Amino acid sequence: MLIVRATKKLLRLAGPSTTRDDDRGTTLLGPWYATVLFWRPRAALLVNETTLLPVLLPLAPAATLTSRIAEQISTALTVYQAPVSFVDQERQHMQTAQLGGTANRSVVGVMTEFTRLAEIHHHDDSTVDLVELSAWLAATPCSPLYSRNVSPDRELIARLEAITT
Q1: Sheet with 54-58, side-by-side order of all strands
Q2: Are 36 and 42 contacting, i.e. CB atoms less than 8 angstroms apart?
């Protein structure tokens, strides 16, 4: 089961909270945080709590967001050449997703910074591909990762190496 910790703005659009604050889910990467980007068309920004990896996907239709997250996260994982077996396992665990409120202020702060950077980049080129923009954001240094791998893309690669070896 995938736990998506959503902001109040996103919960208003995608549905009410259906999980408890202490739920962690069954995915190896742990919970994801999510917010809405009020672009045209609207987008959702997901940030993994463990690696801070950002993933963007179209929001519409908001009612089906949780059923589309697994595919977009799987696509992002393949960009970083995650082993197929790992991607398949994560996708299987993400088939069931539940929304909950945010619980980690540090991740919310990183998500806010990614939102600002994404909006600047989107403003410069509104036709940018969401997967490409996600990869660009993932190379951004994040202070919670300074003592480890500095950026979410490097943190994901290190985490994948630790999990698969």
Answers
A1: 54-58, 43-48, 32-37, 2-6, 97-101
A2: yes
Give the Cα separation of 71 and 76 in Å (integer). Answer: 9
Distance (Å, whole) CA 95 – CA 12: 22
Report the chain's terminal Cα–Cα distance, integer Å. Answer: 23
Token representation of residue 23? 């739920």
CA–CA dist 156, 153 (Å, integer): 5
Q: What is the pLDDT along the chain (165 residues), one digit of tens a residue?
A: 999 999 999 999 988 777 777 787 889 999 999 999 998 889 999 999 999 999 999 999 988 999 999 999 999 999 999 999 999 999 999 999 999 999 999 999 999 999 999 999 887 777 789 999 999 999 999 998 999 999 999 999 999 999 877
Are 100 and 20 spatial neighbours (Cβ–Cβ below 8 Å)?
Answer: yes
Name the amino acid, one letter, at 79.
V
Tokens for 153, please give them: 């893309």
Q: Which fold has domain 2-160?
A: Nucleotidyltransferase; domain 5 (3.30.420)
